[in-house]
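Lab notebook, design round three. We kept the backbone fixed and only want residue identities now. Task for the bench partner: fill in a sequence for the structure below.
Input structure tokens:
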């Protein structure tokens, strides 16, 4: 972060395409082509800056882009995994009942009766929808993943710094992938992700 302003992650480089320096990006924007709609993007540490051009939408939220800063396939391949950010101030205000996922991190969580369910530590998307990682739930060891849906999260109050989690989401009626144990390893039929490693990347 620079100047104390909040930044939002719009996507991440996902490798090279072709031999002319085109890069593939996994986007986190509602419309994939909007990855380039808010001006130049920077890496998380602010040391790298890219002006994305010739954005071509692909499947599953991926796009192909060119940038004058990326001059070869080797350049594009070396950027794989680098996340791309813009200042929160350049983004339009979300519509009612829509939220920028980064704004959810840090919110206190409670059930419908107001009982504490810890706080939102992170937001993930492994391809099957957004998941909230809840940590520090009283009486619960480790972390819990909850789908970010209207059914599982019926209320979000950014001004108050809290959101409501339906107890049914914690009881398994609508639940995200399970954690194998205290290692932070997600295990399900189609997901195998190390949360601890992802947190190290975010640090």
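Proposed sequence:
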């Amino acid at each position: 972060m620079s100047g104390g302003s909040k930044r939002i992650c719009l996507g991440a480089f996902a490798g090279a395409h072709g031999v002319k320096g085109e890069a593939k990006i996994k986007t986190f924007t509602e419309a994939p082509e909007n990855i380039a709609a808010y001006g130049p993007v920077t890496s998380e540490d602010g040391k790298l800056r890219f002006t994305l051009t010739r954005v071509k939408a692909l499947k599953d939220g991926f796009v192909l882009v060119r940038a004058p800063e990326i001059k070869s396939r080797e350049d594009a391949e070396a950027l794989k995994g680098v996340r791309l950010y813009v200042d929160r101030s350049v983004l339009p205000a979300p519509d009612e009942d829509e939220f920028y996922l980064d704004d959810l991190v840090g919110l206190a969580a409670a059930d419908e009766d107001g009982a504490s369910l810890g706080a939102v530590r992170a937001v993930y998307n492994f391809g099957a929808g957004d998941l909230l990682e809840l940590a520090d739930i009283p009486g619960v060891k480790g972390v819990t993943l909850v789908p970010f849906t209207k059914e599982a999260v019926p209320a979000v109050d950014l001004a108050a710094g809290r959101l409501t989690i339906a107890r049914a989401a914690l009881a398994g009626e609508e639940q995200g992938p399970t954690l194998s144990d205290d290692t932070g390893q997600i295990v399900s039929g189609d997901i195998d992700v190390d949360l601890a490693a992802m947190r190290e990347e975010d640090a």
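Keep this in mind before ordering anything: The helical segments are 73-78, 167-170, 195-202.
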